[in-house]
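Notebook, p. 212. Picked up where the previous page left off. The plan for this session was modest: take the two constructs that came back from the sequencing core last week, fold each one, and keep the raw output in the notebook itself so nobody has to go hunting through shared drives later. Recording the first one now, exactly as returned: residue sequence, then the structure token string.
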Amino acid sequence: MRVIAALLVIALVCQSAMAVTSKSQAKLMMEKINSKMEKSPLGRALKGMVTIATKLGYEYQDLYDAFAALKNQLLENLDNENSLFEYQSALHNNTVSQLNALISNYTNQINDGEAQLNDLQNSLQIYQVNLENAQQALYYNIETRDIYQESQKILQAYYDFATAEFSNADQVIGVAIEKLQEAQSQTNNYIFIHFDFLAIK
């Protein structure tokens, strides 16, 4: 872009120089142009081109026309570059917008995934707590079952012992009843004999 601007400036300077009618003014203008052109590599190159062209017989008008054509071509190239720059800028902006949209979409997906992962982690912790509680309850149930079974054994032993004692007591009571009946029978016999004896007297 700086090269294009420099060429346009030089072309405009040449155009101004050619428009001067006075020889003294033209000479002064050419000195200024030469001074400016000597200060840059591009200016020195153009000055060399002009020198070579004049030595080959080209008129300043021809050089002016050539610079005018060059200026028009440079302006056209500049317009094309501006159009291309605008197109590339629009394409760049569109690409950036699409990338930002993709980044935003992926960011949202990542956030959603992290939220789901946190929910799953919380659910896993809840399941783990429930599992530990269930295992603890199962342990208590097993312990309770063991205590119940041991109590059943103790109760069965007491029952067996009570049954045996009851059987023994029943036998003792049976013997006592027999003895009582025997005693009553003997008493009755004694009373009967006693009354008979009294009656005889």
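Okay, moving on. Second construct, recorded in the same format:
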Amino acid sequence: MLAGNAEIVRAAYCTWSKMVHHFVEPLSSTYLCQ
């Protein structure tokens, strides 16, 4: 359950980070979203 939720959160964060790529590109997104 937790692993599934973590994957959903990671995928959502990666999608969000791509949407705001022009404004901010956190190092954490580079690490998490390979």
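Notes on construct two before I forget. The CA atoms of residues 4 and 33 lie 16 Å apart.
Flagging for discussion at group meeting.
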